[in-house]
Structure formats: C-alpha cells, structure tokens
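Pilot study result, target chain (291 residues):
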Amino acid sequence: MGDITTGSVTANGLGFGYLTAGPEDGPLALLLHGFPDSARTWRHLMPELAAAGYRAVAPFTRGYAPTSVPADGAYQTGALAADAVALHEALGGGPDAVVIGHDWGAFTTYGAANVAPGRWRRAVAMSVPPMSVMTTAFFDYEQLKRSFYIFLFQTPLAGMALDRAFVEGLWRDWSPAGADHAADVDHAMECLATPANIEAAIGYYRAMLDPSKHVERYAAEQEAASAAGEVPVLYLHGAEDGCLGTDVIHLDAVQAALPPGSAAHLVPRAGHFLHLDRPEDVNARILDWLS
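Predicted structure:
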C-alpha cells in the first residue's frame, strides 16, 4: 500500500504527470509542490497517507516536467488553483478529499480550498502564509534580501541564472546547516530539463508581481486565493526557514488570516523544506490534523 507509483491524467487542458500511493478507492489527498522542487518532495508523507487509507496523488505542477507547459502561458495563482480543482475532478475526488501544499503549493491550496470549498474536507499549507500576511512580511528589509531571486526573475537574465548551481544555492540557504538535499536538487533539475520548463518556473514569479500577465479566465480563482475561506487549514512553518524568516512570519498573524477552526505551528529544527528536514514530526502533525 505504501509503494509509490507513477501515472498521468489530463486536467484543465494540461497533461499532468503524477506520483501516487494508496488505495484507488480511498479519499483523495492532493499534494502540491513548490519551487525549486518536484512531486518527489512528498516521498515521506505519501506512504503515511496511504497507510491511513488515503489515495495520495502528487502532481508535477504546470510547466514542471513531465507535466505540460501551458500554451496560454498562465502561471498566476488562479491558474494553479484551477488546476487543483480540475485534478480533483479528473481523479474522482469527493467531498472527503484533502489538499496539502508547500511553497507555491501553499498558495494553490488557499485558492483551491477557497474557490471550491465543497471539494475539500481539510487543508494543509506549509512555508508560505496567506497572501495578507505574505504582503506585509515581504517588504521587511531583511526579507527583501532573502527574496532577491523574485526580483531577478523579473529580468531577462532570469533564464541564464536559473541553473543547477543557483538551485543548489537556494536549497542551501533555505535549509538548516548541514542538511543534505542533493537528491532533491537532482529531482528539481529533472523538472527544469528544458528552457521551456525553466521559463515556466520563472513565469510563476513574473505573474506574482505583474497583473498584466494574468489570464482573465482565472479571475475567480485569483480572487479566491486572497480570500479568508472556510475550509480549516493547518499551517506549518520551519523554525529555521531561510526563505521566509520567522522574524517576519508571526503565527498570531497567520492564525488570524486563516478560516475558523484552523491552526498554525512552528516546526523546530526545520527549514523551508520542513517536510524533508523533519519528516516524522511533520507527518505526525498532518495525520493528526486529518484524523
């Protein structure tokens, strides 16, 4: 039951590659990765979800190989949320489904849960707080320095900069001292195998700061991504996160921005990739929340 296999499905006009574990007839647990990462980031959690009876599915998100690069060039949060809702439909998810996201997957989780609350029983978001909190934290001087890559990605130099050494540097800066994430860098680079994949990953950040890159068909999902919502969310943040520091991410503000019945916690001795740094701790918190 805990074995992870591969699959593919068409949703929202894109061909998605995914990893899956657990019984076909179990409640859907949709697991959404971030940058610079891959669906393989969920390899510790998926067997635990499978053992608990869930059908865990971790897609490679739009533009990340082997998933298609979208022809319309849409990378706004609303498009990602629409993908998650379409995947729920294509995979036969019911109202007992749960959605779990890290980094960009967290933004996607807020949007998907808010725009289609009837599809999800509970949600988990990690490492990126709701947009209202993120907007306040982003303009702190120390945080602006950590977020240098977001501004680099607005420039024509972005494609040349985003190579293996750059990705290695981000993983090193965002993780606790001594963490070995070489295998995850390998997985990330497999997803960024072509110039089109690299441009797609950069496109998420360009759409983040430039509304002119938003596609109108995703307007409802885009608005939902910033709403308060109603599906309870468990928010987890690494105490040693080098991407979004705990000096600017305050749990009381996160808690206030989440729907009623939600919870927010720091995970000790974990960095940005907390589910890889402290898998037993994070897995236990998530399974407890979902139970």
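One observation from the pilot: The chain is about 40% helix and 15% strand. A full batch analysis is planned for the follow-on phase.
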